Amino acid sequence: MRASCASTPLYEVPSRMTLTFEQFAPVTAEEVERLIGNAPCKTCQLDPVPTWLVKEMGALISPFLSLLFNKSLTSGCFPTQFKRAVVYVHCLRRRGC
């Protein structure tokens, strides 16, 4: 697979300025607390805090999180440490392969 793609030219990703929201409804601490409470009890290897603890402390952390979300949307700045993800690829075999 790699050998067949080796001669493919690299795709140059065009750069663009980060846009900010001109108008949006700020999220409230109450909305964040409700979303935390309704979230499934799943974890990811990138989660620094266990889900059960976040849910238990939802009322305490929701004002901070709502402030973080609203500032991020108004400034157009998203913390670099939140831009990581774990992606799992599921390959499905076709019949006759």
What is shown here, in short?
The chain has helices spanning 2-5, 29-38, 51-56, 58-75.
Whole-angstrom Rg: 20 Å
Report the span from N to C terminus: 15 Å
| Fraction of residues in H or I helices | 25-40%
Quantity of strands, as a count: 0
Low-confidence segments, ≥5 residues, pLDDT <50? none
Mean pLDDT: 81
The structural class is mainly alpha
- The tally of helices reads 4
SSE string: HHHH
β-sheet strand percentage: under 5%
Give the overall shape, derived from the CA principal axes.
Answer: flat
Biggest β-sheet: count, sense, barrel?
none
Could you state the oligomeric state of the chains shown? single chain
What can you tell me about this protein's structure?
- By secondary structure, this protein is an all-alpha fold.
- The protein has a domain at 22-76.
- Helix content is 39%, strand content 0%.
- The protein has four helices and no strands.
- The protein has helices at residues 2-5, 29-38, 51-56, 58-75.
- Helix 2 (29-38) packs across helix 4 (58-75).
- It is flat, with a radius of gyration of 20 Å.
- The relative contact order is 0.16.
- The model has no long low-confidence stretch (mean pLDDT 81).
SSE blueprint:
Elements: H1 2-5, H2 29-38, H3 51-56, H4 58-75
Helix pairs in contact: 2-4
Key descriptive features of the protein:
97 residues, mainly alpha
